[in-house]
Design brief:
The complex is a heterodimer of chains A (198) and B (270). Chain A is mainly α and 198 residues long. Chain A has 6 helices and no strands. In chain A, helix 1 packs across helix 2, helix 3 packs across helix 4 and helix 5 crosses helix 6. Chain B has 270 residues and is of the alpha/beta class. In chain B, helix 2 packs antiparallel against helix 10, helix 6 packs parallel to helix 7 and helix 9 runs antiparallel to helix 10. The longest helix of chain B has 36 residues. Classes of the chains: A mainly alpha (198), B alpha/beta (270). The interface between A and B is large, with 49 and 55 residues.
Chain lengths: 198, 270
């Protein structure tokens, strides 16, 4: 068994979190609050380092005056916590973030997710796999046509529904695998790093 | 059947724990195959030449590390074995610590910081940060995770934009799609990565469309990569436990459904 304090703390917290599987208890509550507090503390430190490294230092050591702009915009975000006539100022950085985010996401989405994925279904139908991909995509899309009733569309809807069910089953299987991986990872930590019996 | 339907969930937890612990303590060496996606990801790194440049996002935290940290280890090991330069950063605040943990091993083996690897730390701003990073890689941050000045570091020789990078790897518990959107889409650069189990199905269509050079799915993907690399790491050691646990879950699903149908039938008969 290890004598390292860090590993003992890790083992204690792992068991504390698992104790919720038995029932609600104060040890679990303690571990949960500790985790939330630590994550918040980490976020504050990393946030501050970003402000320091990306704005304050370039401004003070390299003379990049333009770095003052993001600092001002960042500070304006806090005006929403105040009251009175300055509160509206937080809309400026918020609008900028929404605008930049939407603009970037839209153009990149159109290129990679729309054009790229449509291109990915333009396949040679000579192989069974390709035929399944093309027909599967068409039938699944047809499931989301809500405008008119049509016999062909209705039949395609049914196939699309089956294909989606298969996809959900696959996603569920992968989720089980992922959750078990997390569990096994923790067990390896407890049995190996902590108890030293692996 | 009624008893089976009302079984205390804690009994299932204990059984599952017992079933998983046994193969960890006494490995059985159950065989596991290779998926085409892992092979593609491996080939993407294998095709690199010494001196090439790889960018890795260590985009995960402690909550997801058990699934994806072994993936980061195998990708990093492969890159170091191929003598390629690795520029690391993270879109997750906890990620740089994991990159640091992996780097410690390679530092001890003689690799040089600033020449073979650099940890640029956490990038705030998500997708906007990626777009900006792609346009100015050496100048995106003035100091790295350890507070060293990035200017003049040997690792950045000949690198200006994403155009100069040979492979992008996103190991993320949130999404690896931004790498496709910001590095494959506009620059046509190969992208691969590692994902958690819940997201694997999502990436298959991107791999089929050629937008992703394969990907590693959960711990299983890391184990397959270890097999290709010829190393027996933590992921390989967990595969017996994973296989046995899957059989157990499958049996539970079948039993649960049988019990449910039998219960419904008996209710109808009554």
């Amino acid at each position: 068994m290890t004598t390292e304090l860090g590993i003992w703390i890790g083992a204690f917290l792992t068991l504390a979190f698992w104790s919720i599987l038995f029932k609600e208890n104060p040890v679990f509550d303690f571990a949960e609050h500790l985790y939330v507090g630590l994550a918040a503390g980490q976020a504050i430190v990393m946030g501050w380092l970003n402000v320091k490294n990306l704005a304050i230092e370039p401004m003070t050591t390299e003379g990049k005056i333009s770095a003052i702009l993001p600092i001002i915009l960042g500070l304006l975000l806090y005006t929403r916590f105040g009251s009175g006539s300055l509160k509206w100022l937080n809309r400026i950085p918020t609008a900028l973030m929404v605008g930049v985010g939407a603009g970037l996401a839209f153009t990149r989405f159109a290129q990679s997710d729309l054009v790229g994925q449509v291109r990915g279904t333009m396949l040679d139908l000579g192989t069974l796999n390709n035929a399944i991909i093309v027909l599967g995509a068409l039938c699944t899309i047809s499931y989301f046509f809500f405008t008119s009733e049509n016999k062909v569309l209705t039949e395609m809807n049914k196939v699309g529904r089956v294909i989606m069910m298969i996809a959900f089953g696959s996603a569920f299987g992968n989720t089980v695998m992922g959750r078990l991986s997390l569990f096994i990872g923790r067990l390896q930590y407890l049995l190996g790093d902590w108890l030293g019996i692996l | 059947m009624e008893r089976l339907l009302n079984i205390d969930r804690r009994i299932i937890y204990v059984l599952l724990a017992a079933i998983v612990v046994v193969p960890l303590l006494k490995p059985m060496g159950l065989p596991f195959g290779l998926t085409a996606e892992t092979q593609k990801a491996f080939n993407a790194v294998e095709s690199l030449k010494p001196g090439d440049v790889v960018v890795i996002d260590f985009g995960y935290d402690a909550g997801g590390a058990a699934e994806v940290h072994p993936q980061a280890e195998v990708f990093f090991t492969h890159c170091m074995q191929k003598d390629v330069r690795v520029i690391g950063f993270s879109l997750n605040q906890q990620g740089p610590r994991f990159a640091d943990k992996i780097w410690e091993t390679w530092k001890a083996q003689g690799k040089e910081y600033g020449k073979d690897f650099v940890n640029l730390g956490f990038f705030a701003g998500g997708e906007a940060a990626l777009a900006s990073f792609a346009k100015n890689i050496p100048g995106f941050v003035a100091v790295d995770y350890y507070n060293n000045k990035t200017e003049g570091m040997e690792i950045f020789d000949g690198i200006q934009t994403a155009e100069d990078v040979d492979l992008f790897i996103s190991i993320s518990t949130s999404s690896i799609l931004p790498f496709i959107q910001y590095f494959y889409g506009p620059y046509g650069k190969p992208v691969t990565g590692g994902a958690i189990g819940t997201q694997i199905s999502r990436y298959q269509s991107y791999s089929d469309a050629g937008q992703l050079e394969g990907y590693l799915g959960s711990l299983r993907g890391a184990a397959e990569y270890e097999k290709l690399l010829g190393v027996a790491g933590t992921a390989t050691a967990s595969m017996d436990a994973q296989s046995v646990a899957h059989i157990f879950i499958a049996v539970l699903i079948v039993l649960g459904n049988v019990a449910e149908f039998a219960h419904k039938k008996s209710k109808r008969a009554a």
